Amino acid sequence: MEKIPMTPTGNAALAAELKNLKSVERPAIIEAIATARELGDLKENAEYHSAREKQGFIEGRIKELEGILSLADVIDPAKLSGAIKFGAKVTLVDEDTDEEKTWQIVGEYEANIENGLLNIKSPIARALIGKDEGDSVEVRTPGGVRSYEVLSIEYA
Question: Which residue of 70, 113, 121, 137 sits 20 to 30 Å from the alpha carbon of 10, by its own alpha carbon?
Answer without folding.
Answer: 137
